[in-house]
Amino acid sequence: MNYTLTQIPERTAKPRHSGFTMVMDKGLSIRQAEDLLSTSADYIDIIKLGWATSFVTPNLQEKLDVYAAAGIPVYFGGTLFEAFVVRKQFDDYRRLLDKYKMTYAEVSDGSIEMDPDDKCEYIRQLATQVTVLSEVGSKDEAKIIPPYKWIKLMQAELQAGAWKVIGEAREGGNVGLFRSSGEVRQGLVEEILTQVPFESIIWEAPQKAQQVWFVKLLGANVNLGNIAPHEVIPLETIRLGLRGDTFTHFLNQSEL
Amino acid sequence: MNYTLTQIPERTAKPRHSGFTMVMDKGLSIRQAEDLLSTSADYIDIIKLGWATSFVTPNLQEKLDVYAAAGIPVYFGGTLFEAFVVRKQFDDYRRLLDKYKMTYAEVSDGSIEMDPDDKCEYIRQLATQVTVLSEVGSKDEAKIIPPYKWIKLMQAELQAGAWKVIGEAREGGNVGLFRSSGEVRQGLVEEILTQVPFESIIWEAPQKAQQVWFVKLLGANVNLGNIAPHEVIPLETIRLGLRGDTFTHFLNQSEL
Amino acid sequence: MNYTLTQIPERTAKPRHSGFTMVMDKGLSIRQAEDLLSTSADYIDIIKLGWATSFVTPNLQEKLDVYAAAGIPVYFGGTLFEAFVVRKQFDDYRRLLDKYKMTYAEVSDGSIEMDPDDKCEYIRQLATQVTVLSEVGSKDEAKIIPPYKWIKLMQAELQAGAWKVIGEAREGGNVGLFRSSGEVRQGLVEEILTQVPFESIIWEAPQKAQQVWFVKLLGANVNLGNIAPHEVIPLETIRLGLRGDTFTHFLNQSEL
Q: Would you identify the CATH topology of the domain C21-255?
């Protein structure tokens, strides 16, 4: 840190299991990736190459190398897994992970119908090869999953071998955990937290108000995902109580 | 492509007449322009220097050189044409196009009142010098043009020598083809398509939901414009059915 | 300028007291800062390192050097001042300004309660060390300050030694001068202008419609702040009547 302030909440250090920030790269150039790392490498725990953008980006291997050199793991968005599965090319997907020496992979069913048992079987198989993140929630805003089912799915997927489960929100933050307005489904989040350990969940929260809501509820070291590259520094200040939105949250109230 | 997936819609190749992507540069630096090309050159068919931003950007010639080296044509936004015309400096505009060796130009009347015959005359004159794109639609959200008139104007402008006609939406996607909420004027688009050839139209569609709507209606190879630099890769995945929004659109339904 | 157009409003030149553009840097990398300067240095009068982002950016000294080399002053967002004050570390803040050789500082009370006399005392003290910008308005959208009080505070703060006063809007443009929808509190602005000199105020106006509103009311040379880096070129065209929104505003109407 560039200077000293009292009453700054303590942040976890890498490798983080809580206080984790997952960033979405949806097509950065090599220089843009380097720029991101130059300001934010310490605050980024993992990078997702959004949905199937890796199919069309010409700089894939070079970008993987840039992130690897910074010690930050990368994974392909779950939509890519689904794109292979829906085409009955799951074995090709496994070979793809090997080809690019991926150490993480996401299993999701945001765009397709998948039997929960089948999903868990994919998790089990991939967990022999990589660290698995599994995602719960549909990308279809009309498809509302009730809280008890979120919990059941998350528990089963962790049980099947997922390292962490991700709560779906998309790049926009307007489905899954959130209403189409971006408003948090507070009851859903609170009910999930009664049954699933805090540190096992990554909450996709691309909008500032969503990040603020989670930091206020769960503290500086909540796991957040789908953070845009240019929002990593702002998010870090929200976690530390150094932006207006959380400014007084971590202060010793008796001293104010 | 970095790997192989079945059932990916076929895309047209450059020089494209359909499946065309027009990107808006509203003041990129040289390095940012290079970054854009490094990830997206294959997917960009033409670049518009938004409205009259070319007046105030200090790097104009250098940027034109960067785009030229990538083989991507560039044109000045129609507002610049209008700025010259409204000042009775049309001859200066023609000299400007020569000075910068521009091979494309836009004729529009989004910010001024112009008689349709006069507009066609400008198209005719400029078509002797460059390839002309003409734009239909007002930037004034209160000025609603009925569908039959859109069609009449588009047909007359193509007849006068425009290579393609552009449907107005602005950078924001909230006028012309769209309501102020960004919602597509579906009846307008569908009526236009009954009379004007699909490949003669470029639809300005800066918002993701608008791009998705057009790809679902007209397929992977619809012509789209006013795409922000960082949305070219995402748009390409939408065209290919590799983002949630169009994920099942191109799949063989009987195999699902 | 790259070419000549008649009827372009005259812009002030640096060092500007009106027609001033303040840009918000909320975590740019060194290269991104260089990119910004390469296109926009002539149009940027001062750069704010947004709120307390300077706490977590690893490139602080280097970035200050880049901006200094371009002759553009920089200051820390007011939230940083407040973070020190609320922790009773005001002396540390003064040392921090010296350590980084800052020549400007902001005094604000957007996130904390502060007695107006105390705020003026901070202004007086800091004015012996740096040029002071003071900000009026709360970051809390529920806290509405009536116009007469804005005026009283602005006058007192200028009297205490503030070089200019800033009207609060945040990065989003949805508090202070604006309703949560982003709409300008027109009556507030107009009433302030009856009592506080035009050139003593910097209006935070991050949204395009807000910038347009101020340029239409106060002309090309209104002082505007919280401009995002990629909006500096677009703003300059709005000031010059070269974007649709202000296109006819500066034209000699009798010639149209």
A: TIM Barrel (3.20.20)
